[in-house]
């Protein structure tokens, strides 16, 4: 029997991870804003228990649900991976992600290390993981301190300790990008993305 030529090739899951302050969110945003790559990559819309901020819309920035709603989704196995951050829950919804992949769309996500490992395990043939490495621990510490100026010293120290542990996981990722210069790092990320979707 001949294969159906109209059958779409499954999309890829492009996961960017790294310690707090490494620049992973900035890099994913840069990829999506790129004229060429923006047509080939969509950002995953996460589920969250936090309230919408000014200008945010449901199903655009996030799927906004209450804690009870989030728990129902977890119980029904409709969330692939999740984390708790600053008192709120965030997760990757299964339905929208799999619909996008089935439609041949490539999906970009920023995830913590645990989430990246989970999705790589669930979708070993479709998930590509990229670890964003800061130029140095000192540079990372400066970024964390400047980003968390409102945080107490204990919270900042905890973030720095966590970042040091996370850097040790770099060998578990498919690729590593050093974010010493944002333009250079973004260029490397574009090359990785194009190589993977054309593989």
Please outline the helices and strands:
Blueprint: E1 13-17, H1 24-33, E2 41-43, E3 46-48, E4 62-64, H2 67-75, E5 79-85, E6 88-93, H3 94-102, E7 106-110, H4 113-122, E8 127-133, H5 137-147, H6 153-167, E9 175-178, H7 182-197
Parallel strand pairs: 1-7, 1-8, 2-7, 3-4, 8-9
Antiparallel strand pairs: 3-6, 5-6
Helix pairs in contact: 5-6
What do these coordinates show?
The chain has about 200 residues and is α/β, with parallel strands linked by helices. It has one domain (about 15-195): Rossmann fold. The chain is built from 7 helices and 9 strands. The strands form 2 sheets. It has a 5-stranded parallel sheet, sandwiched between helices. A 4-stranded mixed sheet has the order 4-3-6-5. A hairpin with a 2-residue loop joins strand 5 (about 80-85) and strand 6. Helix 5 packs antiparallel against helix 6 (about 155-165). It is globular, with a radius of gyration of 18 Å. The two termini are about 25 Å apart. The relative contact order is 0.21. The mean pLDDT is about 85.
